Model the fold of this input.
Amino acid sequence: MQFQKVVSICFKKGINAENKWSSKWWKIERKMARKAKKERKAREDRDNMLRHTLAQRMAAEEKKRVDENEKLRKLLMKKPKPREEKFKLL
Done:
């Protein structure tokens, strides 16, 4: 019985879900939620890009280090020429 009274009062005043969702406050809240979601997405994209560039930079440094070590290794493995051996003996 009490529920029926609440329903009839809401009906008389025009209070229902449609009015609630079409009010300005709900529109503003939806806009703010969309804006926050968009900003969060942009921040995540920026963080992913920075993380990716950092990984690329670190990989480039590692490759440079490996290349230098490879050059040294090749030089050390190479057999010296006979004239270089004579020079070293003197």
